[in-house]
Amino acid sequence: MAKILLVDDNAELLAMAALFLRRAEHVVTTAGDGKEVMHLVEDNAFDLVITDLVMPEKEGIETIIDLHRKMPALKILAISGGGSIHGKDYLANALDFGAAGTLAKPFSGIELLAAVSDLLSE
Question: Which residue from 3, 42, 72, 86 puts its CA 20 to 30 A from 49's CA?
Fold first, then answer.
């Protein structure tokens, strides 16, 4: 069981991913954008942050940079379906800025749980 912060501006995806993670017995906190993240990580000890890259207010890349700078040992899984550039390119950029892993949207619950398991076992 891990404490996971799940960040995405898509409420439907956020609910679905949180459900899969909770069924796998993880403790999940959700946020709708990167702006909320820094407040949440200051008050909670998360094992993993899963963040979308394309969000209003504060994008995922900026969130990853801030998290990696403040908590370099915190594992981050970047998720994205793209945006104005190809999704795989955007995910590769996330790795350059501190994400430990990536997962392209759309993904299944099984793919999400496998990516989470891989990162938590490292």
Answer: 86
